[in-house]
Amino acid sequence: MKKDRNRSTCRMPGIQSLKSLTAFALLLALLFSATPTPAGWFWQNPKPQGYPPQSLYFVDDITGYAVGDYGTIMKTTNGGIAWSNLSSGSTSYFYSVHFPLDASTGYVVGRGTSGYAIVMKTTNGGANWRSMPLGGNYSLNDIFFPLDADTGYTVGYRSTILKTTDGGNTWVNQSLGLSRGLRGVHFPVDAQTGYAVGDSGLIAKTADGGTSWTTQVSGTYYLTSVQFPVDTQTGYITGTGGTILKTTNGGTVWTRQTSGTTVYLIDVYFPTNDQTGYVAGSGGTVLKTTDGGTSWTTLASGTTNYLTTIHFPINEQTGFTAGGAYGNYSLLKTTNGGITWSDQFTTATTEWLEAIQFPQGDGTGFIAGWNGTILKTTDSGGTWLKKTSGVHAILFSANFPVDVITGYAVGDSGRIVKTTDGGESWVIQPSGTSYRLETVHFPVNVQTGYVAGGYWSPQQSVILKTTDGGAQWTRLNTGSTDWLLGIQFPLDADTGYAVGTNGTILKTTDAGSTWTRQTSGVTTWLYVVQFPRNSQTGYIAGQTGGNVLKTTNGGMTWTSIPTGANSYFPWLHFPDNANTGYVVGGQGTIIKTTDGGITWSQQTSGTSYNLFCDYFVNAQTGYAAGHNATILKTTDGGASFVESEISQKPSIKGQKIEVRPNPFTNITTIRYQLATSGPAKLTVYNIAGQAVRLLVHERRPAGNNEVIWNGRGESMLPLPPGVYFIRLETPEFRKVGRVVLMR
After folding, report:
1. Are 276 and 230 in contact (CB under 8 A)?
2. Under DSSP, is residue 125 helix (H, G, I), strand (E, B) or coil?
3. Mean pLDDT, range 163-182, rounded to an integer
4. Is the pLDDT confidence value at 19 over 60?
């Protein structure tokens, strides 16, 4: 959670398939630029993205980095005015970032998805990140390189201390052998004398580059950060209960200072000397001293968020602090020594978002969500403005039938609201029910529409119909007691479908007067139904074990199609025809088909938040929204890993790749054939397009070749079960094979 705390005079201080690795690097470069439209999926809300920074590091007052959960790495090159989201190629939790000398070479540390430690390194300013080998070490909390980019230390769980002298290529374990975690590390002037602090008040010191460490206990439960601003004698430590400790004799004696607070103090930073310093902590706390900690003043940060990091890169005037909750954090900057702070984080709302629509396929769109939330954009999502719906219920669905003027939204407790002025104002309509209304659809005009919903205990279903624009709603007889979650009338107001709990599929051909139950073949919850262009070919998504249901005969039969994604699916959308469609789901899942659901490719959404809805104005430009006020956008169809690879030039005759057994549990053999001898590279990618193992990178003979893969990544830890891609690359061609790993 920390950043550079070195004030020595030795240096300036600071803080899913790929087309080819070259093309991938170019793609990342585009992502980092503030001007071009990012490739793939990018954040529209919150901005700059949805994960709170755990650590900040600025090499100067212009260029800085921030890291956080789900592989988040951000960069600014204009003093925080704008932040670009860098691709780390990881979904790890990052807790600390450090660039020892300049903006080019830097490190981040944290906890990988397997629970073990991770260190990543860049040598080109964040354009590419490489995972460094660590083995099975525990989660890491802080990293520090005292003098250069070669010799550094990182600390973490179970008193882990690792040291490198070759830029992270190898690490030596200097663990204290204790069960206590270490949370901060600092070497003030060189790589010999350093300090580490952590749980149960643990303070550790080395004077020989970590060969030996002496420990002492401070009496504070958690110690979170440590800094010696100018030498090895005077230093500061922060911790729980408003703890600030100071030493003036190299850590022999630590004296508790009066902080004036009892909150959790998480980070300390003295920019240029040992007199003027800052501390950040919970509840938006920012403290400042100008007399070496004799007195501390509480600054008005303007937030109550949990601030985990603070950094003043070049002087006592310009500084940054950040932290908070998912989807609602602070990214603060001051240019006057903390007197005032401006927040560089923006969000239109903090509510969960349930439904999205761009009625006319242009720049005007609407989103509905929890607590009566209605958002509107008129610039293709560049800005979202919150509108007053007049209700506080969860709004699960919204529908603008013919234009951007007249629309409806429905939700909890039988709520139906209507707008006739483009969402600027909303009027509550009497529904005649208190049931939860899940979905609304007006097939052809603003007069005739349907609403579906129900209740769970006792289970009830409800379908309401209006023919006068919602002035009156009539309850229809469905012949079912199953809770209904989705409804659609594909072409007119006569033929429609409704889906719900217990695998329920209902169909009407007489405008809702009668409903016939269809056989879905499942007994789980079905959330959404869509017939893209006619009443014959349709799709259903829900809690179907990662499968999508499809019919080509108006629902007489439904086929369950596996997608390869392990998620539930709240929503699907086929924008132009029955072939190209998108499904969203839990843990940031986005999958795409271009062949009518026969095959699906998983896309990299950039979030682990649950996505509840998506809408595409065409096959390329679309939006997704969900948990923690998340709004994502793509303008290139999501840039699927599989799509981009398959779209490449076909393989040359005599060059092929096969994987057997497939699926496999422990070991599989990858056989590949080369037409000519020469350099060959064989890489394993996960379904998100992240390289997880390099199997071959050498000159290979023409003809048959093979290599065995044991289902492990570069760290030699077992990879999770799922779909993986084996990419064979030579100077003349590229080819991809698919393999399923089972555990």
Report:
1. no
2. coil
3. 93
4. no
* Structural domain boundaries, residue 727: 649-741
Q: Which comes out higher in pLDDT, residue 43 or 14?
A: 43
Q: Give the span between the Cα atoms of 510 and 507, in whole angstroms.
A: 9
Q: Where are the beta strands (DSSP E) in 270-372?
A: 277-281, 286-289, 297-299, 307-311, 319-325, 328-334, 342-343, 353-357, 365-369
pLDDT band at 112 (very low <50, low <70, confident <90, very high): confident
Q: Tens digits of per-residue pLDDT, 703-717?
A: 999 999 999 987 788
Whether residue 524 is found in the same domain as residue 421:
yes
Q: In this structure, are 534 and 409 located in the same domain?
A: yes
Percent of the chain with pLDDT over 70: 92
User: Would you say residue 372 lies in a domain?
Assistant: yes
Half-sphere exposure of 670 (CA within 13 A, CB side): 24
Q: 704 and 608, same structural domain? A: no
CA 726 to chain centre: 25
Residue 7 in any domain: the answer is no
Average pLDDT, the chain: 90
Tell me, letter by letter, the H, E, C secondary structure of 606-657.
CCCCCEEEEEECCCCCEEEEEHHHCEEEECCCCCCHHHHHHCCCCCCCCCEE
Q: What is the mean pLDDT of residues 601-617?
A: 94
Which tokens go with 59? 């090499």
Contact 692, 714 (CB under 8 A): yes
Greater model confidence, 727 or 339: 339
Find tokens 């204790």 and name the residue: 178
In terms of pLDDT, which residue wins out, 732 or 629? 629
Question: For residue 373, which of 407, 396, 402, 401 has the smallest C-alpha distance?
Answer: 396
Answer yes or no: are the C-beta atoms of 629 and 353 closer than 8 Å.
yes
Q: Please list, in sequence order, all residues whose beta carbon lies within 8 angstroms of the beta carbon of residue 549, skipping any fewer than 6 positions away.
A: 520, 521, 522, 526, 539, 540, 541, 558, 559, 560, 561
Q: Where are the alpha helices (DSSP H) in 392-547?
A: none
Q: Whole-model pTM?
A: 0.83
Tell me the pLDDT band of 58, cut-offs 50, 70 and 90: very high
d(CA 542, CA 569): 5
556 part of a folded domain: yes
Task: Please choose, from the candidates 205, 276, 202, 284, the residue with its C-alpha nearest in 3D space to the C-alpha of residue 239.
Answer: 202
Q: Tell me the average pLDDT across 205-231.
A: 94
Query: pLDDT tens digits, residue range 303-326?
Result: 999 999 999 999 999 999 999 999
Cα Dmax for the chain: 88
The CA distances from residue 257 to 217, 271, 537, in Å, are 17, 19, 72
CA 199, 204, 209, 212: dihedral to nearest 10 degrees? -110
Q: What tokens were used for 711?
A: 């289902």
- Rg of the chain's alpha carbons, rounded to an integer? 28
Where is the domain boundary, 287, 317, 343? 343
List beta partners, residue 142. Answer: 155
Q: Is residue 586 classed as helix, strand or coil in its secondary structure?
A: helix
Confidence of residue 37 (pLDDT cuts 50, 70, 90): low
Query: Does residue 177 lie within any of the structural domains?
Result: yes
Rounded-to-integer distance, Cα 721 and Cα 447, Å: 50
Q: 27 and 109 in one domain?
A: yes
DSSP string, 507-544: EESSTTS--EEE--S--S-EEEEE-SSSSSSEEEEESS
Looking at the chain, the whole-number percentage of residues with pLDDT higher than 90 is 76
- 722-729 β-sheet, strand order: 691-700, 678-686, 722-729, 734-741
Q: How confident is the model at residue 17 (pLDDT cuts 50, 70, 90)?
A: very low
Same domain, 85 and 218: yes
**Please, are residues 82 and 55 in contact by the beta-carbon 8 Å criterion?**
no
Residues 449 and 499 in one domain: yes
